Amino acid sequence: MKGKIAAVFFVVTLSIANPSWGQLGGVIDSTLNQVRGIGQTLDQQLIEPLPLRLPKLEPFALSQLPAVVDTVTHPLNSLPASLNIPALNNAVEVQVEDGWRAIERQWLMLADQSSLSLLQQVGATLIKQQEYKALDLVLVHFTVPAHLDSKAALTNILPPAQVNTLDRNHVFASQADADLASTPTATPQPIPSQAMCDNTVTVGMLDTSIDKNHPALTQAKIITQNFVDNTNNAPQYHGTAIASLLVGHSDQLRPLLPKANLYAASVFYRQSDYAQGATMLHLVDGLNWLAMQQVKVVNMSLAGPDNQILALVIDKLTAKGMIIVAAAGNEGPAAPAMYPAAYKKVVAVTATDVKQQIYRWANQGDYIDFAALGVNVLSAKAGGGEGHESGTSVASPVVAAAVACVYEQFGGQAEVILAYLAQQAVDLGQKGKDPVFGNGLITRPL
């Protein structure tokens, strides 16, 4: 069409420039009519809807969608690819395989002298070798040269059996969102009138430091141990919130366990004003200490990657009678499983709101065991006052409290305890256990 318009323009121009071309007027009029006709035809074709031909899509599971952890990140929690950590003697936290984070070129392995010698021969540097008596194991903590900083590279050096006890010094994150007190659409949480139980129980937690001077916590029985550089810059926000849910008391707060002895291992360092991380090594430190204190129920409101050292430690502790309750994760329903919650021997907890609707960012999967209130929950704020928190972190201590309440009653038998809790739970979603709510909602009192 462009060519025909150009031709007409050329003829019209010549006609104007030279009157002798006027005899061609009839030809021009005819040509112009043809052009108009073509234009009308094109307009009609463009206006008429084209048949929609989309490829047929086969049914797919949510798990096939891109991981939310890779596509949606809360701007306040965003971290640079490389982050210097003063609390860890200026070690560097970096992004590694599958988007997880770890301390740069640091690895952990069950102690084996021959394997350590092999590693040192190729340039690895021993940081320390430490015995964990309550865990019946000795760990080697070491760094490797950049060209050996992968599981594949180390597999080529170490015996196969040793590779199965080797992993990065991964970084784990707390699983609670920022303060929601200013959110106008948030549904207020009613002040609970009753505790989960009034038994004198012992419960442990791995979290940030706790502001024990907060008015809601001054009368609580809290025993703490710090495993990260003890500075005034240590994060306290998350740990204070979780501790207040368990044992805090104020005009607005009612503790889940008013007569509990709370053992709190501080394992987190500050990543930013809004985020904190805990290394795999510090998780081992904290779990070993809790086991040494004879703590049998432990809350872990944190999550991260599958780690062979973590799996090994949890196997040892659960075999000794410890029940670990963990947050399922806040990366969304299509995200991959997060750990330790996804381990079979760990009780995984998701979060709901007061209307018993699932928390929109909660991880989902067959490993979910129970749900509990975890949206817009009032808790103590480090430094004073109270705020609202959301996330599976906030729901996890509810189930940990329930486990602690019946631990002695059922002789510490995990299967019996979990079966009893499943009977007490409010069945939500699909009938029976499902990947969204697990066995159902645990509420207070038990």
TrEMBL record:
The UniProt record lists the keyword Hydrolase: yes
Single Gene Ontology BP annotation: proteolysis
Catalytic residues (positions): 207, 238, 393
Domain Peptidase S8/S53: residue ranges: 199-440
This protein's UniProt keywords: Hydrolase, Protease, Serine protease
InterPro entries cross-referenced by the UniProt entry: Peptidase_S8/S53_dom, Peptidase_S8/S53_dom_sf, Peptidase_S8_Ser-AS, Peptidase_S8_subtilisin-like, Peptidase_S8_subtilisin-rel
Gene Ontology molecular functions: serine-type endopeptidase activity
A Pfam family assignment: Peptidase_S8
Family stated for the protein in its record: Belongs to the peptidase S8 family.
Protein known as: Peptidase S8/S53 domain-containing protein
Lineage: Bacteria, Pseudomonadati, Pseudomonadota, Gammaproteobacteria, Alteromonadales
